[in-house]
């Protein structure tokens, strides 16, 4: 495979990641609009659809991490090629102590997990508030919201931990 082809694939994976983050916002916003849009007096269980928000967010995170793995695999291949010294020097620069101290590239990683944790926490808080205030007609809806939110938080943090652990090796 040619050098340019691999670079094109890396660039395509980066565009794919950006698109996934856009779709995460659109998908979660759409589920939220669907859940809150049908909350008339005749539909007391419309809030159940909000349980899908953490699942959608974590699913998008999984796809982003998958793209990260594809990019890392291609970067490892680049590093293993002796004739591409420039790539090896660039990776050594990124691993240097000065660059590691700044961690300027980690913002996207924190945004991915942070958005999932935030969305999941909002869903869980809505469920908890509903349980204590009896805001919803069915207590099972509130419990479902709470459990879904807690599942989203735990899953997002677990994925972040697994991804960080794999990145260290």
Category by helix and strand content:
mainly alpha
Largest sheet: none
Q: Give the CA-CA distance, first to last residue.
A: 26 Å
Number of strands: 0
Uncertain parts: none
Counting DSSP H or I runs of 4 or more residues, the number of helices is 6
Please indicate the percent range of residues in DSSP E strands (runs of 2 or more). Answer: under 5%
**What is the radius of gyration?**
21 Å
What is the average per-residue confidence, as pLDDT, rounded to a whole number? 78
Task: Categorize the overall geometry.
Answer: elongated
- Please give the share of residues in helix: over 70%
Short description:
By secondary structure, this protein is an all-alpha fold.
What does this protein structure show overall?
This protein has 169 residues and is an all-alpha fold. Helix content is 81%, strand content 0%. The protein is built from 6 helices and no strands. The protein has helices at 3-37, 52-80, 85-94, 97-102, 107-133, 139-168. The longest helix is centred in the first third of the chain and has 35 residues, at 3-37. It is elongated and about 65 Å long. It starts with a helix and ends with a helix. The mean pLDDT is 78.
